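Here is a tokenized protein:
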Amino acid sequence: MQGRDEDPGLSGDWDARVVEAGRQIRRTVWTWLLVAIAMAGLWEAAVYPLSPYVTTARGCRLGYPLANVYLPWRLKLLSACVEATGTIVDQEHASDGDTHLDLAPDPLSMDLLVPGNVGRDQGALILEIVPADRQGILLLPVGSHVRAVGPLVYDRLHGWIEIHPLWRLELLR
């Protein structure tokens, strides 16, 4: 009769089998997570199948609103196309290649803001120009009174509202 310590099933390689099983489970979980993320992106592309460069007279684009956005999963799409007016109070270039404009909104555009915007530059609405759109947007100087058009999104990482990507920027007189 074999004792418990002598049972081949409980030999020294038991720990190695447990560790390997844990690795296999982690690989499987990561694989399914990546598949889920990819499928979410494919689903959004299927919902918005038209080219992002077909525009309406107002400046809205047909197609997937977050085309060319870096890490679009961090943004919650609130509206496929909005218009805001106000004054540019700041501009900077971000590490992801986007150009950020801070817009002090006119009274009629104030309803686009959330508390996260108020804590940033006295209530600025963030406008982001992605690299793919930079050629088509004339960058206007700080102090310009403008009309901005693009998708309205909630940035989950920062807790504020943005027009991202910015599709049209027009100088108002």
Q: What stands out?
A: Residues 46-52 have pLDDT under 50 and may be disordered. The chain has two domains: 4-44, 68-171. Residues 136 and 168 are 8 Å apart (CA to CA). Strands lie at 54-55, 61-62, 75-93, 99-105, 125-129, 145-155, 160-163, 168-171.
